[in-house]
From TrEMBL:
It comes from the Bacteria. This is SnoaL-like domain-containing protein. It holds the Pfam family SnoaL_2. Residues 11-115 form the SnoaL-like domain.
Amino acid sequence: MTADSATRRLVEQYYDLIDSGDLHQACGLMAENVKFTFANADPIFGQESAEAAIQVVLDRCTAIRHRVVTWFEEPGPDGSVNANFEIRIRYDLKNGKVLDNPGAVFATVNDDGVFTEQRLYGDLNEVFAD
């Protein structure tokens, strides 16, 4: 698929909302029963749980910036789309450190254009180090 697909635009909108401080609106782009997984943590379910998990990371930051680097997508069942992409995340931490971490995301978007699953892989150890 092209880099300018509807799914890519959704992902960019999602991260732009998070980066601008509107986490609640970003999570509104998820299905009510979204399956959300951070790295090796157990999956959590639902918009509110996903928002709370992301907020834990944001609470450590004065600013955050996501940039999609590499993009792949393929059609899934029932009109869904599976997106797999490399991401760079800049964390401006409250302790003064600035990190630029790589990560990978596997996401599924349904035919209504919302996330039904997100699996995010990256090393958050430095984000949570004191």
